[in-house]
Structure formats: structure tokens, C-alpha cells
Design goal:
50% helix, globular, Helix Hairpins, 12 helices, 305 residues, Histone, subunit A, alpha/beta, 3 domains, Rossmann fold
């Protein structure tokens, strides 16, 4: 592979077929995969994050999967360094980097000109308490301080509210200033998979029920023994939080599953909104659920670049 071949990113909301397409392209193009799904960073969070087991990775190397314990916090600044190192490493072996995942900020951090301010543990702890106490009031505060950021962050997204307020307090600059225009550090082809809403809703429901049958509850029980409840990021992951409530007797199984389905659908909408703002993404309609068709469309786009 030429060192000048563009990096490939595959993005889109959950349950659209990103992992399958990444494998197909990696086989065809001599690629290796870099994970940009922040929940797949966590060791042991396998079923609930739809992490491909080793036996289904077709022998293709996957990078930045299983790099954190559930008690660790994911950090986009650290990830940015790791992802760019992985891109250089993959290229050094004549392979093609293919980034895949639905965490929009992490995907952009790997490929775009973005700088991330540091953090202050005391400031963050105070803001977490304030947001936990009244996220609506803190979201209104964010609207006053940085309307552009507040427009993109929902009141339910407590982690991003905290981070936005932290950045504003530490730097004295709007959080939205940390999200510059879409400018890559090197040539990149951006592919997006989309699915119509009705199909996506059905897929999400099927996936959640399948994950429960596959042993998702047992996975959470094992992770609780590893400290899941104390992980600020991992413990709040969709499904994992609902199963913890189920295990604690706060909700029954049906309610936990339904809440997980609803939260996943809401998350999928937020993902789609985030990615739709990026004018560089070439979209592929994956509603039919046909991996071969997705591959043909993707390869046509790549070949045309």
C-alpha cells in the first residue's frame, strides 16, 4: 500500500453494520482496524458493546480495544495520541488504517486538527456534583456561557455538560471553540452508514433482547466484581446502568430491557445528528442489512477518490 493512501473512517449510529464493513474493507485493502467506540475500550464489556470476539475478527488486527479497566475514565486526549501512534504503526508495516466506531468526538480526535484542554480534578468533582444535583440548571448555565455548545449537548448528557463547563472555567474560552471546522491532519475518506428509523428501532430492540440471551446480565455481575459500580464512565454505559438497577431490585427485567432500548434509540439519534453535521462523510444506506451491498458502495466511493 502506498503511504499516501488516505486513512478510512467508518462512522454512523449503533446497529448500522460498521464492524462488518470494516472487516470487509480491511480484507480487500490490506487494512488494520482502529477502534473509535469509547465503550469498547473497556476490558470485559463485550456483549453490551457488541464487541467482536477474536474468533470473528478474521485474523485482522484490531487496535485500541480492551485498553482500560472499568474503573478507569476514558480520555479523548490520551486516545488521540494512541490513535495517531496506531496510524503511524499500521502505515509502517505497509497496511491501511481503518477507523471504525460510533463515538463521534473520538473519531474526529484521531483524524482532525483538534486540541484538548487538560482537566482539573477539583473543578471536575465540584461540577459533577452540581450537574448530578440539577442537570437542567447546569444546562441553562451552559446556555448562558456558551450557547453554541449548549445547542449540541442535551440536558441528559451529564458528562458532556460537566466537560463543557470545566473547559470554560479552566481556559476562560467557550467549549465550542475546542471543536474547530472539519479539517483533517492528513487525507481521509469518511464513510457513514445510515439506516431508516423504523428499521433501526427494530434492530436495536432485537439486539438488546439478543444480548440478554447471550449473557449480558452475567457479564455485568462479573464486572461488578471488578469495580464497575465505581467507574464513572463505564458504570453509566447504556444497558450496563439499567442491568445494575435490575440486579439491585429497582426495576424488573422487562423494564430494564425497555429502558435500554429507549436509551439506545435516543443515543442513536444523537449519533446521527453529530455525524450529519460533517460535510465530508459519504453516506451509504444500510437499511437493507446487506453487507455485500454496503461493501460495494463503500469500495466504489474509495476507488473514486
Amino acid at each position: 500500500m502506498s503511504a499516501n493512501e488516505p486513512v478510512i473512517t467508518i462512522v454512523g449510529s449503533t446497529a448500522t453494520g460498521k464492524s462488518e464493513l470494516a472487516l470487509d474493507l480491511a480484507e480487500r485493502l490490506g487494512g488494520e482496524i482502529i477502534n473509535t467506540d469509547s465503550m469498547q475500550f473497556y476490558r470485559g464489556m463485550d456483549i453490551g458493546t457488541a464487541k467482536l470476539p477474536l474468533s470473528e475478527r478474521r485474523g485482522i488486527p484490531h487496535h485500541l480495544i480492551d485498553i482500560l479497566d472499568v474503573t478507569d475514565d476514558a480520555n479523548v486526549q490520551t486516545f488521540q495520541t494512541q490513535a495517531r501512534e496506531a496510524i503511524v504503526d499500521i502505515r509502517s508495516r505497509g497496511r491501511r488504517p481503518i477507523l471504525v466506531g460510533g463515538s463521534g468526538l473520538y473519531a474526529r480526535a484521531a483524524t482532525d486538527h483538534m486540541e484538548f484542554p487538560g482537566t482539573d480534578a477539583q473543578v471536575r468533582a465540584r461540577l459533577e456534583g452540581e450537574v448530578e444535583a440539577d442537570r437542567w440548571a447546569q444546562h441553562r448555565r451552559l446556555q448562558d456561557l456558551d450557547p453554541a455548545a449548549a445547542e449540541k449537548i442535551t440536558p441528559n448528557d451529564q458528562r458532556r455538560i460537566v466537560r463543557a463547563l470545566e473547559v470554560i472555567e479552566i481556559t476562560g474560552r467557550p467549549f465550542s471553540a475546542q471543536l474547530p471546522d472539519y479539517q483533517e491532519i492528513e487525507p481521509t475518506i469518511h464513510l457513514g452508514l445510515s439506516v431508516d428509523r423504523a428499521t433501526l428501532h427494530a434492530r436495536v430492540a432485537d439486539r438488546v433482547h439478543t444480548m440478554w440471551r447471550q449473557g449480558w446480565v452475567d457479564e455485568v455481575i462479573r464486572l461488578l466484581d471488578r469495580g464497575l459500580a465505581h467507574g464513572r464512565t463505564a458504570s453509566r454505559a447504556i444497558g450496563y446502568a439499567q442491568i445494575q438497577d435490575f440486579l439491585a431490585g429497582k426495576v424488573d427485567q422487562e423494564s430494564a430491557q425497555e429502558q435500554t432500548i429507549i436509551r439506545t434509540r435516543q443515543f442513536a439519534r444523537r449519533q446521527d445528528t453529530w455525524f450529519r453535521r460533517d460535510p465530508r462523510i459519504a453516506w451509504i444506506d444500510a437499511s437493507a442489512g446487506d453487507p455485500e451491498s454496503n461493501f460495494v458502495h463503500a469500495f466504489t466511493i474509495i476507488d473514486g477518490r
